[in-house]
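Z., the sequence and structure:
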Amino acid sequence: QRATTAPHRWRALHPKGQPPPPRSSHICAPWPANHSLVFHGGITSNGVSGDVFLLRGTTTRDDGEWVDVQTSGAVVKRAHHVGGVVGDSTLLVFSGQGDTLITTQTLTALDLLTWTWSSLPLDKVGPMARIDGAGMAVAGVGLVVFGGVRDDFNFVPAADAWLLRNATDVTPRGRLAHHMAPACDPDSTASAAPDS
């Protein structure tokens, strides 16, 4: 007899707390260690945003709650960017557009324990600035970035994939040591840059 499965059903969430303002072009990154989702940036009615919200405690029975996070350091206003949580508590944000809507080639980190932003150096070899790429943190590997539209605005989709290895995830260990590699191979022999 053929197995049957229950139909997929949407359920509207009504989390406690004040929700973020309506927006588009933001990132939503799972933070497994905190059982939360981290929302950053995007475009609101006030332009490009740099705010950070958590949606935590959501389960099949509980809608969870919104938390408006106050960060320190230079606010990172971004839209059309990519990002993900690597290690236990670091949100990495790559490229996207700032509040002037100019595509920027930057790498920034938000420490999710101290809620402090910092700017990270970029290697000479790495992905070009882009908007609307796809990015995902892979546990034990790092941040993978694929595709998007480069800053030449010919709107020809990019087909390159990059892996940003983070030393909180891979050997050698050391906070935020990193290496750009042109392939998504966790067994790559390329070594991470040493801590400064």
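The CA atoms of residues 68 and 116 lie 14 Å apart. The chain has no helices and 14 strands.

Let me know what you think.
H.
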